[in-house]
Design a protein that fits this description.
The structure is a homodimer. Chain A is of the alpha/beta class. Chain A is built from eleven helices and 24 strands. Helices cover 32% and strands 24% of the residues of chain A. In chain A, the strands form eight sheets. Chain A has a five-stranded parallel beta sheet. In chain A, strands 13-12-11-17 form a four-stranded parallel beta sheet. Chain A has a three-stranded antiparallel beta sheet with strand order 6-7-8, with no helix packed on it. At the A-B interface, strand 5, helix 4 and helix 11 of A face strand 5, helix 4 and helix 11 of B. Chains A, B: Belongs to the NADH dehydrogenase family.
């Protein structure tokens, strides 16, 4: 790029504009002597905690995303590039982009997150989309809404029943949120709009291999969540490992379930950072990092967020949560700044647990923060306020608040367009 | 469908949920003795007059569209089907849908609108998308925003210039609106967000074959629009028929213009209604109808809106405008009701011109209504209020008003996400 030749500032290249990459860029700020290039293959930062609401027609895609270059507009020393990384050369300190262009770095930060993992069954991806990107959310929304349309036109009772069966795999927060939101769509938002079917008769199944849903939460909250889901009309099926997924539906613990819509919320796999760097990873593809987030044995390379593996104070790996990514980004921005400008040695990264939340549906959620446990409406209200507050962009905050207020009062949904294109 | 066998009510099948089809269904209402089936290949009614704002990142797709079955929810005798018509049999009075299903009708209403026409050059469609559907708008938005991203990464000055050249073909209202909105994006909304380019240096060309833009308006308003566009930074090129469009750009009146983004706003072609019915059409594919919108020589079949050809009081064909389609729908709903329930003969359809509007950009528009002419800010304000009022859905009205207020105050845009999928 044009400025490459003359500029002698320390160049930090950040790959990925999620919570971790963005916080790193913001932490580095506008410090003289440092210039930053942030590369992402999407033009937007995505607020993943609300993605399930896009998939279930509550919010529009643009309301949970913000252009990265717009967020970093005031950072005059930061260049944002829309592009995909093809290769990294840690020895020559360069990053090569797909379609041409090479970036020489002094420090490299990899914040590329994670994607779905189908436990060795990549062929399931076609039938059971996961929920990581806006395109995933659009695809799920399309298939959920289309299922009701197909049911209205179905020529046999059997086909109608298949269209109105929704199977969600995985009883973690994503699976619970999706199941609750689809049940709400069927039992409230769509009621009265069809003439040949009753959408409230849809079957929503939450299929979990382990003995209980929301395993990271205390048992009392798990069983509350099960009861709350049952009230919303979700059938919770625990202890049912999935054995097969195909065009007809799901096979779990030997039972064949005919379902037009199957959604994957079970496993994740870290991005190809390990492959780019030529370093070893754990089974989930995560790169092992030091307490300062540097990659062992590689100079000037840092990996953080879902792409990295670091043990917490309890010696167990830190979970793949937005708050971990966010805190690591804030830490790394500050740490690199001190290191580059003042040659300071940073203290090790320390994760501060800000609490676990999962929303189940209208008026129902669970919150756990140290010894504090909330459930029901108080947890739901806390969740809603926290998420509006955390959204990026004033306009999005206002519009999301309005949509929620409207949805809460009318029980209807504002974003129910089925795009024609097949994505 | 299930109710087919037992129901002896008069069955009206409406194909298309645009302004015309929807107004027909609403006019038929809930009258006992009539049941209605509305078929559309999209699940939403689209407010086309604001589609250019989706294409230029002001509004989100969902904000100019509303699910048809949601609009007609209270019409208990109306069934909405998401489906595509494969064939019509006027003798046997049936409509066959793609993917199975047949509808027997007593009265058939075809309101399938129009699509782009490339004047015998269908190969141009690939390089120069038109603006008729939400998918078109998404595609154009994607290519406009991507052009700025590609310019930021361009490796040569020539390539940068090509990326920053936007050619809009056709100086009608759509072309004028698109050109003004893209110029506003470049000169205001994106300013300060790039490091290697200055988006305000983008060239926006409006290419028109005829001697002036906005030909249906009086000459004074045309020349005002030209001046207003020039102030916004648009280069208006009249008297330049387009001779070729390919991956490199446009050739117009012998001049080769290298442009990464070409947008088609020139010609339209009616939908395949004529082919379905086996009747003759004019060159633009429109079906000739009687003053009561019935197809000549075919019993119980009506065509209206952009798919139809009917002369107005001045003996010239009525133009393909939303207000014509809307008024014809309202007329036909009422007329069919009287005819079916009370065997009334309807009076001929009479178009009442409600005025012509075209918006040019921030604070600039033209309005013509009989002898009344408005331009500048008053026309802009009138346009904005009229369009919010005409939008379907309270939530959309509120959100569009908020987005406009925000865009007007900050000069920024709220819907700038580039989707990954290639549509």
């Amino acid at each position: 790029m044009a400025s490459e030749v003359v500029n002698r500032d320390h160049h930090v290249v950040i790959v990925g504009g999620g919570f971790d990459g963005l916080a790193t860029a913001q932490g580095l700020g506008n410090a003289p002597g440092i210039r930053v290039t942030l590369v992402d293959r999407r033009n937007h930062h995505l607020f993943q905690p609300l993605l399930y609401q896009v998939a279930t027609a509550v919010l529009s895609p643009g309301e949970v995303a913000q252009p990265i270059r717009s967020i970093l507009r005031k950072h005059r020393r930061t260049t944002v590039l829309l592009g995909e990384v093809r290769a990294v050369d840690p020895a020559g300190r360069t990053v090569t982009l797909t379609g041409g262009g090479e970036l020489a770095y002094d420090t490299l930060v990899i914040a590329t997150g994670a994607t779905h993992s189908y436990f060795g069954h990549p062929e399931w991806a076609k039938f059971a989309p996961g929920l990581k990107t806006l395109d995933d959310a659009r695809r799920i929304r399309r298939s959920v809404l289309q299922a009701f349309e197909d049911a209205e036109r179905a020529l046999s009772e059997e086909e109608r029943r298949r269209c109105l069966t929704f199977a969600i795999i995985g009883g973690g927060p994503t699976g619970v949120e999706m199941a609750g939101a689809i049940a709400g769509l069927a039992r409230q938002a769509l009621v009265g709009e069809f003439r040949n079917i009753r959408p409230e008769e849809a079957r929503v199944l939450l299929i979990e291999a382990g003995p209980r849903i929301l395993a990271p939460f205390p048992e009392t909250l798990s069983s509350y969540a099960e009861r709350a889901l049952a009230r919303l009309g979700v059938t919770v099926m625990t202890g049912r490992p999935v054995e097969n997924i195909d065009a007809d539906g799901v096979t779990a613990a030997g039972e064949v379930i005919s379902a037009a819509t199957v959604i994957w919320g079970a496993g994740v796999q870290a991005s190809p950072a390990g492959r780019w760097l030529g370093v070893e990873t754990d089974r989930a593809g995560r790169v092992r990092v030091e307490p300062d987030l540097a990659v062992e044995g590689l100079a000037h390379v840092y990996v953080l967020g879902d792409a990295s593996l670091l043990a917490g104070e309890d010696r167990r790996p830190l979970p793949g949560l937005a708050q971990v990514a966010q805190q690591q980004g804030e830490y790394l921005g500050r740490a690199l700044r001190g290191q580059i400008l003042r040659a300071e040695t940073p203290p090790p990264f320390k994760f501060r647990n800000r609490g676990n939340l999962a929303v189940i549906g209208r008026k129902a959620a669970v919150v756990q923060w140290d010894s504090v446990q909330l459930k029901g409406f108080p947890a739901f209200a806390f969740w809603a306020v926290a998420h509006v507050y955390l959204l990026v962009g004033f306009q999005n905050r206002l519009i999301v608040s309005l949509r929620w207020l409207w949805a809460y009062l009318t029980k209807r949904r504002g974003s129910r367009i089925i795009p024609e294109s097949s994505s």
